């Protein structure tokens, strides 16, 4: 994995299919025997700069570094950083790069990770930049798909919910379009359709195609994967629109009855109402396993960007 040494991860397309495969192979090895890796990053420091709330992403990054024997510094809200005093992203990152070996940063503004990376002399990982991208969630999603389905090509992937503001949706499409024969079924209310930059992304893929529909039940039977998402309340301009749209797509046992026996349901979490709790006990619901995979793939990513064997 020496070729990832010192690189940044700003969007999934930053890594080639071969580099991704190497990362997933390593994540599989780690998942099988995590204790074998518990001294690999001794003496290394991860900085987590979270200007926006997070549970899984921040804690799985921190758990990943701690399980590798490294240490973690950082903040979990902008209010406890010098951003409150008006410090720029560039200056914050430049400073933190003096104290750490690798940085994971989440920020509400699109493009913030790229600004950070320009000013960092240690690898910077985008842990979510506004409604734009969230590449490590995508690594999590892809590792789960690979472990469950045994492949990353020839898949029909349904994405439902907030396809406009959902950065995990944009990143998953950006990543999966490079594999042969991927069909995306995009299910959302009219107001929450994928932005044009994502459609262009699909068209520039390896023969990937998409259809847009508002009919989730009708689409269920053809899906290999169903990727559910939360309506992104914090990115709406007014609360009435959020309330009107938030419960438009709810996955329940009735809808699951139309799906293939071996379809899998993914969700980046947190869930609000979009998956009924009754679905959790369906063996096809793998979102908590997906959350666990997130830690293993972040362990693999940290090791690779730091160039540790
Ligand atoms: C996602 C995010 O932050 O974009 N959460 C996560 O990182 N697992 C999805 C979401 O917040 O809806």
Structural overview:
With 309 residues, this protein is an alpha/beta fold. It has two domains: 2-133 and 293-306, Aspartate/ornithine carbamoyltransferase (Rossmann fold, 3-Layer(aba) Sandwich), CATH 3.40.50; 135-290, Aspartate/ornithine carbamoyltransferase (Rossmann fold, 3-Layer(aba) Sandwich). It is built from eleven helices and nine strands. The protein has helices spanning 17-32, 56-67, 89-99, 112-118, 135-149, 167-176, 196-203, 216-219, 239-245, 253-256, 287-306; strands at residues 45-50, 71-75, 102-107, 124-129, 155-160, 182-187, 209-213, 225-228, 264-266. The strands form two sheets. Strands 7-6-5-8-9 form a five-stranded parallel β-sheet, with helices on one face. The radius of gyration is 19 Å and the shape is globular. The mean pLDDT is 96. Bound molecules: N-carbamoyl-L-aspartate. N-carbamoyl-L-aspartate binds next to helix 2 and helix 6.
Concise account of the structure shown:
By secondary structure, the chain is of the alpha/beta class. It has helices spanning 17-32, 56-67, 89-99, 112-118, 135-149, 167-176, 196-203, 216-219, 239-245, 253-256, 287-306, and strands at 45-50, 71-75, 102-107, 124-129, 155-160, 182-187, 209-213, 225-228, 264-266.
What is the CATH fold-level name of the largest domain?
A: Rossmann fold
The set of bound ligands, ions and cofactors reads: N-carbamoyl-L-aspartate
Determine the mean pLDDT.
Answer: 96
- In CATH's first tier, which class of the largest domain applies? Alpha Beta
User: Can you tell me the overall shape?
Assistant: globular
Largest beta-sheet characterization: 5 strands, parallel
**Structural class from helices and strands?**
alpha/beta
Helix content: 25-40%
Give the quaternary arrangement of the chains: single chain
Order of helices and strands: HEHEHEHEHEHEHEHEHHEH
Radius of gyration computed on alpha carbons: 19 Å
How are the strands of the biggest sheet laid out side by side?
7-6-5-8-9
CATH homologous superfamily caption of the largest domain: Aspartate/ornithine carbamoyltransferase
Strand content: 15-25%
Number of domains: 2
Number of strands: 9
Low-confidence stretches: none
Gap between N and C termini? 8 Å
- Label the CATH architecture of the largest domain: 3-Layer(aba) Sandwich
- Number of helices, where a helix is a run of at least 4 consecutive DSSP H or I residues: 11
């Amino acid at each position: 994995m020496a070729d990832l040494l010192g690189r940044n991860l700003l969007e999934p397309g930053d890594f080639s299919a071969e580099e991704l495969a190497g990362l997933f192979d390593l994540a599989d090895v780690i998942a099988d025997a995590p204790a074998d890796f518990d001294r690999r990053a001794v003496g290394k420091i991860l900085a987590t700069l979270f200007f926006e709330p997070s549970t899984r992403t921040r804690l799985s990054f921190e758990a990943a570094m701690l399980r590798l024997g490294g240490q973690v510094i950082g903040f979990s809200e902008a209010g406890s950083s010098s951003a409150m005093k008006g410090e720029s992203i560039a200056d914050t990152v430049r400073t933190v790069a003096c104290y750490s070996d690798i940085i994971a940063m989440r920020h509400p503004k699109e493009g913030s990770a790229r600004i950070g990376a320009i000013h960092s002399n240690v690898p910077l990982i985008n842990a979510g930049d506004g409604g734009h991208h969230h590449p490590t969630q995508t690594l999590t999603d892809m590792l789960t798909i690979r472990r469950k389905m045994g492949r990353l090509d020839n898949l029909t992937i349904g994405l439902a919910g907030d396809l406009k503001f959902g950065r995990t949706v944009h990143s998953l499409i950006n990543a999966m379009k490079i594999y042969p024969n991927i069909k995306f079924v995009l299910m959302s209310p009219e107001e929450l359709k994928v932005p044009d930059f994502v459609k262009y992304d699909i068209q520039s893929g390896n023969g990937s195609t998409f259809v847009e529909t508002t009919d989730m039940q009708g689409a269920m039977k053809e899906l290999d994967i169903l990727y559910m998402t939360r309506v992104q309340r914090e990115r709406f301009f007014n609360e009435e629109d959020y309330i009107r749209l938030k419960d438009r797509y709810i996955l329940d046992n009735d809808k699951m009855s139309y799906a293939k026996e071996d379809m899998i349901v993914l969700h980046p979490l947190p869930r609000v109402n979009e998956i009924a709790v009754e679905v959790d006990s369906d063996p096809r619901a793998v979102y908590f396993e997906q959350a666990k995979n997130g830690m293993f793939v972040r362990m693999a990513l940290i090791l690779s960007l730091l160039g540790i064997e």
